[in-house]
Amino acid sequence: MMKPVMTLSALLLSVCSLNTLAAEPSFPHLSTSGYGEIEVTPDMAEFTVRIVKTELDAEKAKKRVDAIVDNFIAGLTAKGVKKESFTSSNLYISPEYQYPERGKQELVGYQASRTMTVKVEQLDRLNLYLDLALASGINQVDNIQLKVRDQGQYQQAARLAAIKDAQTKAASLAQGFGYDLGQVWRIVYRQPSNQPVLMRSMAMDSNVESASYQDSLIKIHDRVEVIYQIEQP
């Protein structure tokens, strides 16, 4: 009964060994990586607000939150914001308790909450929409993300910069060690996870200035790993 298991184990070990050998070239080689980064001025944004209200009655808490969301949506629509540019979450209601030193927990009310996310197509209108949120009764911004349109073209530029960086490093290393740089044997590329610029998480304040949004820069990066053959001159 043990023999088939031992045979299978030996086979798996053999395959793993072959894969390991195949992963490393048998000829002299040079491994390097290239990094590219592009700085871009943001031209759009996205922000998320959170509406939270606590009342003794769950239905009253729900109505207060819904009223604020409806006011904000109406204001956005009046400013020409399209429906596909904003989304709102489902209502979430949770009981609130207080815990005295002695005795059982006591129900003191219900907290109702919803979040809304707004996509700002024109960055210079960001302050306008934040002021509108404040006027609607929203007092908390979870985050403001600065973004750039057509990120693909900037990603391509960062990728080409990474390729050039890898080539330059490889040529310099080969020359420094007295070798000639040969053909590319392997290229490893993993899609980078570029994140939009997160400005801040804050409470809404009518005195907050966001003129610095246009002065911010988004860094788009890319990376590539390359293995070259190298030869004696």
UniProtKB/TrEMBL annotation:
It holds the Pfam family SIMPL. Residues 1-22 form the signal peptide. Keywords: Signal. Gene3D superfamilies: Protein of unknown function (DUF541), domain 1, Protein of unknown function (DUF541), domain 2. It comes from the Bacteria. This is 26 kDa periplasmic immunogenic protein. It comes from Vibrio hippocampi. The lineage of its organism: Bacteria, Pseudomonadati, Pseudomonadota, Gammaproteobacteria, Vibrionales.
